[in-house]
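Recall that a protein's primary structure is simply its ordered list of amino acids. Everything else, from secondary elements to tertiary packing, is in principle encoded there. The following example makes that idea concrete.
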Amino acid sequence: MLDYKLLEALVVVIDQGGFERGARHLGLTQSAVSQRIKLLEARLGQPVLVRSPRLAPTPLGRRLLNHAQQVRLLESDLLGEVPALGGGEQRLRLAINADSLATWWPEAIGRFCEEHSVLFDLVVEDQEVALKRMRDGDVAGCICDSPTPVQGARSHALGSMRYRALASPAFVARHFAEGVTSEALRRAPAIVFGPDDRLQHRYLAMHGVEPPFPHHLCPSSEGFVGLALAGLGYGMVPERQAERELSEGRLQEIDAGPHLAEGRLVDLSPGQVIDVPLYWHHWRQGGKVLDALTDHLLRLGDAWLTPLSTA
């Protein structure tokens, strides 16, 4: 049988990103946490962590993290059904892309949190790499662009996020005075979210432009739009992020939002969009709260995202 105190040390060290922060979280000394990890490895006969060049779980460590994640969720179900065992907060650790977090996720999930009294521990990852967090056993669910689930998990289509190439009028006047040509795109600085972000590459490929190309890196959805508004570059912005809010408190799908309507941003290629499919992944044995969250997302997905193309 596993010693769950030892397993907890592994989980916390990975969650907190190091032995020192993990020890602080557990209220132990760093030496005590290190001893627990070493004892776990001694009992299993193989390492569970790679300590350099950066801290990461081994294949066995990933399997143990997967197990611990699911046990934690199932224990939450049990605590809800057997009050004598004592209460405890319900937490879900999820990986979500920054653009979803900046647009549809907060409003789509608000009522669920109230009804189920659940707290989220959100890990922000690009939609192309969030699935790695599931594979590593770091999260119980994730939103990513791949329909293929990892072993022991399920995936469901949610819809697409639609992106448009936007820039400020001043930027367009400086860099695209003769039109949005391939040559102009090769010279104009773009804005890219991070090294895993390939949206700009896809847009440029549609215009016959291959990397490398000049670009700013900005790992913030709000900062991304801010740089575009300031005229530092052009970039692929979620259509919903440029929409206006109605007085009823929900967003309406329209062709131009406040930044566009006010002339603060312009569309470089009107009618040309990139749709990024989003899929919800979760563990099969994730407990009632994770199942309820899945039902909630599938029920509301069409209200917040563009329907997936069937072509």
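Residues 244-257 have pLDDT under 50 and may be disordered. Residues 6 and 35 are 9 Å apart (CA to CA).
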